[in-house]
Amino acid sequence: MPEHIGLPQGTLDLLILRTLALEPQHGWGISERVQQMSRDVLRIQQGSLYPALHRLQRRGWVKARWGTSENNRRAKYYELTKAGRRQLTAEQDSWHKLAAAVAQVLGPA
């Protein structure tokens, strides 16, 4: 069974943007997709997810609309805006640079 790890500061927004790049999702779907894509290592707590979604909306990176979920319930669906796609690209580039730098430091001495 995979060990669950906490998200480093600032990665939640990146994970949400990346998940929404695939297709519009409701909050629970975003959480489930991240957990699935990370092979059950990353879990987003609802208490963190919704404040992050509201923050992304305020920044204009995500927009929301009401719809019906797969279990026939009313749900708010989130999707990326054009600005959100640009932000995702910028954040992915930064993440890759950071990960490469950390890998260099952690590599063989």
Structure report:
The protein is α+β, with helices and mostly antiparallel strands and 109 residues long. The protein has a single domain (11-102), classed as Arc Repressor Mutant, subunit A (Orthogonal Bundle), CATH 1.10.10. The protein is 56% helix and 15% strand. It has four helices and three strands, in the order αβααββα. It has helices spanning 11-22, 27-37, 46-58, 82-106; strands spanning 25-26, 62-68, 74-80. The chain has a three-stranded antiparallel beta sheet with strand order 1-3-2. Helix 1 (11-22) packs across helix 4. It starts with 10 loop residues before the first helix and ends with a helix.
Main sheet overview: 3 strands, antiparallel
Helix content: 55-70%
Give the total of beta strands: 3
* Oligomer designation: single chain
Number of helices: 4
- Rounded to the nearest angstrom, the radius of gyration is 15 Å
Structural class: alpha+beta
Across the major sheet, the strand order is 1-3-2
Compute the separation of the termini in Å.
31 Å
Characteristic terms for this protein:
alpha+beta; single chain; globular; 109 residues; 4 helices; 15% strand; Arc Repressor Mutant, subunit A
Reconstruct the topology from this structure.
Blueprint: H1 11-22, E1 25-26, H2 27-37, H3 46-58, E2 62-68, E3 74-80, H4 82-106
Antiparallel strand pairs: 1-3, 2-3
Helix pairs in contact: 1-2, 1-4
Give a short overview.
This protein is of the alpha+beta class. The chain has a single domain, classed as Winged helix-like DNA-binding domain superfamily/Winged helix DNA-binding domain (Arc Repressor Mutant, subunit A).
